Amino acid sequence: MSVPGLRLLLLFLISLCIPNVWADQALPYKIDIGRGGHCVRDPVWMRKNHMHLLIHQRDLAVREGKRSKEISLKNCIECHASTKDDSVIAREDSFCVACHRYEAVKIDCFDCHSGIRKSAWLLRNAK
Ligand code: HEC
Ligand code: HEC
Ligand code: HEC
User: What does the mean pLDDT of the chain come to?
Assistant: First the structure.
């Protein structure tokens, strides 16, 4: 490859790294994302709108008996529970705790709903 070509390639590669560094620094706290995969919506959209999605689905389920496999707490927890303790609420950096703690948001959802990955719970209790 020619020298200018190499330089362009290098610049391109460096430019790929910069947004990632920024993205990491943008969250001022540690958060355990869980298992990975593809979120039910775009993650950036989810950051702002997950509560509307959840509360809308709760109303559908409770008032009209309409359920969704995709938009359900159980589904969120399958992915977002920590791979260390299978929970979204056990620690300060747990998925449904880290941001809320930082932003001083209080939710009561887990007074009633389980914060544990159901598949893991079933495995454990089958033994
Ligand atoms: C007082 C107990 C209680 C609290 C607090 C509560 N829920 Fe629920 N929720 C229920 C019950 C009961 C159902 C109906 C169970 C069912 O039909 O599976 C339900 C159903 C749901 C559903 C639809 C079914 C599912 O599993 O996805 C969602 C979504 C939901 N709740 C989200 C929330 C969110 C988000 C919060 C916090 C803002 C919350 N709930 C707080 C009791 C509660
Ligand atoms: C199949 C796995 C999967 C499911 C199911 C899932 N997610 Fe996600 N979610 C992800 C991944 C992976 C990310 C991106 C993490 C990253 O790279 O920052 C993400 C991102 C997010 C974010 C933004 C996090 C951030 O750092 O800004 C929120 C909020 C979120 N999800 C909430 C939910 C909720 C609520 C549900 C259930 C309705 C759900 N997710 C279901 C995998 C999943
Ligand atoms: C990337 C950060 C982040 C993650 C991860 C996250 N939340 Fe949130 N959540 C927020 C912020 C910020 C607010 C407050 C938004 C506002 O007040 O406009 C909020 C608000 C909420 C609310 C509405 C509370 C209210 O009374 O207004 C619910 C319900 C909620 N989140 C549920 C969840 C659940 C369940 C999870 C885990 C599956 C989760 N969130 C994960 C950042 C996050």
Answer: 88
Start-end of H helices in 1-127: 3-26, 43-64, 73-80, 95-103, 109-112, 118-126
Angle value at C-alpha 35, between 33 and 39, nearest 5 degrees:
70
Model-level pTM? Answer: 0.88
Which of 36, 125, 29 lies closest to 78, judged by CA?
36
Instruction: Please name the residue whose Cα sits nearest to atom 38 of ligand 3.
Output: 96
Pocket lining: 43 vs ligand 2, CB cutoff 6 Å = yes
SS3 state at 92: coil
Q: Is 29 in contact with 99 (CB distance < 8 Å)?
A: yes
Nearest ligand (C-alpha, residue 52): 3
Check pocket membership of 88 for ligand 1, CB cut-off 6 A.
no
Nearest Cα to Cα of residue 28 among 127, 123, 103: 103
Residue with CA nearest ligand 1 atom 42: 112
pLDDT digits (tens, 9 = 90+) for 35-49: 999 999 999 999 999
What is the CA(95)–ligand 3 centre distance, in A?
10
